[in-house]
Amino acid sequence: MLEATAPPTGPVPLRSWPAQHLTGVDFDPVLAELMREGPITRIQLPNGSGWAWLVTRYEDVRMVTNDPRFSRRAVVAADVTRLAPHFIPAEGAVGFADPPDHTRLRRAIAPAFTTRGVETLRTRAQEMLDELVDGILADGPPADLTERLLAPFPLAVVCELMGVAERDRAMVHEWTALILSSTAGAEASEAAKRSMCDYFERLVREPGDTPREGVIALLAAAVAAGEVTETEAVGLALLLQIGGEAVTNNTGNMVYILLSRPGVWDRLRAEPELRPTAVDEMLRYIPHRNSVGLSRIATEDLVLAGQQVRAGEAVYVSYLAANRDPEVFERPEELVLDRTPNPHVAFGYGPHFCPGAMLARLEQELIVSALLERFPGLRLAVPEDELRWRPGALIRGPEALPVAW
After folding, report:
1. Euclidean distance between CA atoms 345 and 307, whole angstroms
2. In Å, how far are 200, 352, 371, 384 from 258, measured between CA atoms?
């Protein structure tokens, strides 16, 4: 917790946090150790240089992410220790912006992410989902749910939202996979990011036949009105596209839980009214990413969780740790399908709260209900220990989910 005058405690050891290949929904053992060692620790990640602070307590995480003394913009000029060999957001993107610039950028795309805007997309999303499910059922078992449903559905929904033409979707998906990899190498990831930025730059300059209510059209209008720059618009489009596709991996983890935990499938089939609450609990429970995301830089000297933090030092927050804080969540290590209230921070907190949170939750609820209703006998087609998990992925998830019914 941030304190005005509390004295700092003793020196904190520096802990190396290596990139690990984690499978299933196992919680990162290094993060678990860091949580036990204290509310604030010092870490060194595989890339970048130096070290950074890490806060894991729920209240500290929410405070840091909502405090203007911790800057995202300042990260651009700092070679901060990090997991990925590259920075995922493009310079000028909303991910590297602080208020008031951050507020201005979010305002440009706000109409697409209102409750009304997301609900308008629900009908089209349901149609696309039904078409994919019909195809799987027509072909019969076995099927790879990742290939046939969990990858194409979020891709189709986010592209529909963005205004990306169907002919371009496979190409955009390939770029996203490279950008979200920590093992493809910095050169390949940066090349994919440049290609996607060039693509969105062309669309923002000439929106053409993109839907008028789509994000690209909104960004093009904002650029034309002088509300955002072209560079800002492209960076924002990049993050939204990548974030939309990240739903694939997290939903894959949800389906894995449904099929591997005795009683979960049967209970959610018997109690359909419980499904939204259960999806929310899986969002809290699933460690959906590896390590940590983007850091922040302290802009002044302050005391954080009893430690002196100097201006210019990097600070990471762990949403995964915050979602397991026993002071906030009773039995945090357990999956409690009817947990209420559930103030999880799976979509972040503060100004950088994920703009697509409502859309992601909508997609996940639609997928879970479609599987429960239309595949009553769904089961894994291979033993659990034969499932493959994405190596080097910043967002964790199964490579494939072979199923039968």
Report:
1. 24
2. 37, 30, 10, 13
Please name the amino acid found at residue 96.
Answer: F
Given phi > 0 = left and psi -120 to 50 = alpha, else beta, which region is 181? beta
With the C-alpha atoms ordered 102, 104, 110, 112, is the resulting torsion angle positive or negative?
negative
| Dihedral sign for Cα atoms in the order 265, 267, 273, 277 | negative
pLDDT digits (tens, 9 = 90+) for 26-51: 999 999 999 999 899 999 999 999 99
Max Cα distance, the chain (Å):
67
Question: CB-side exposure of 227: number of CA atoms within 13 Å?
Answer: 16
Task: Select from 345, 338, 358, 331 the least CA-distant residue to 284.
Answer: 345
Q: Are 395 and 250 in contact (CB under 8 A)?
A: yes
Spatial distance between the Cα atoms of 222 and 332, rounded to a whole number of angstroms = 43
| Burial class of residue 159 (count of CB atoms within 10 Å of its CB; 0-12, 13-18, 19+) | buried
- The enclosing H or E element of 43 equals strand 40-44
Is residue 290 within 8 A of residue 82, CB to CB? The reply is no
| Residue whose pair of structure tokens reads 């997290």 in the numeric block | 250
The domains located in the chain, with CATH, are 2-404 (1.10.630.10)
Helix (H, G, I), strand (E, B) or coil at 234: helix
> Which DSSP helix (H) or strand (E) runs through 65?
helix 58-65
Whole-structure pTM value: 0.90
Q: Going by DSSP bridges, is the β-strand pair 14-16/40-44 parallel, antiparallel, or unpaired?
A: parallel
Q: Which two tokens stand for residue 48?
A: 């970048």
Task: Mark 345-378 as b/e (b = at least 16 C-beta within 10 Å).
Answer: bbbbbbbbebbbbbbbbbbbbbbbbbbbeebeeb
Given pLDDT bands bounded at 50, 70 and 90, which one contains residue 120?
confident
Give strand pairing partners of 298: 70
Helix (H) or strand (E) holding 2: strand 2-3
Please give the C-alpha separations between residue 394 and each of 19, 95, 110, 148, 346, in angstroms, as whole numbers.
10, 16, 27, 22, 15
